[in-house]
Design goal:
This protein is α+β, with helices and mostly antiparallel strands. It is built from 4 helices and 5 strands, in the order βααββααββ.
Length: 133
């Protein structure tokens, strides 16, 4: 299995590349087609947030293991403006872009583990994990 995929995110084309690379890695891990779709959707949302709010960043996808279980980890990192109110940003329906507000709350619902660290003026790191069942 490939150790990890790193995709710089600067444009909509990069969102597609990250989605495809993540989906391919998740397939190598052994996820079902329905889970591949969930993982690809989560990656798309994270990458879209980078383009929309930070303009540039990166997505790293890697296969992981814990206690004999296998999964995939996605880390979305940017040096953008940061999120002033993370709790508010995680509420379903909240959007600063005029969108539907499905971004971060949707990603949290699609994955098994979700962690976000953000500092205003310093950027945001979102780490998510999905485990094979």
């Amino acid at each position: 299995m490939t150790d990890e995929a790193r995709v710089p995110i600067r444009s909509d084309l990069d969102i597609l590349t990250a989605r495809q690379r993540g989906r391919a890695m998740a397939a190598e891990v052994g996820f079902s087609s329905s889970n591949l779709t969930l993982i690809a959707t989560a990656i798309s949302e994270l990458a879209r947030n980078i383009v929309l709010y930070a303009r540039r960043g990166r997505i790293v996808v890697k296969g992981i293991e814990r206690n004999g279980g296998r999964g995939i980890m996605v880390v979305a990192r940017d040096d953008g403006p940061g999120i002033p109110n993370v709790a508010q940003a995680l509420q379903s329906g909240f959007s600063t872009s005029g969108g539907l507000g499905l971004g971060l709350p949707g990603v949290r619902r699609l994955t098994d583990e979700f962690d976000i660290v953000s500092a205003v003026g310093r950027g945001t790191i979102v780490t998510v994990k999905k485990w094979l069942r």
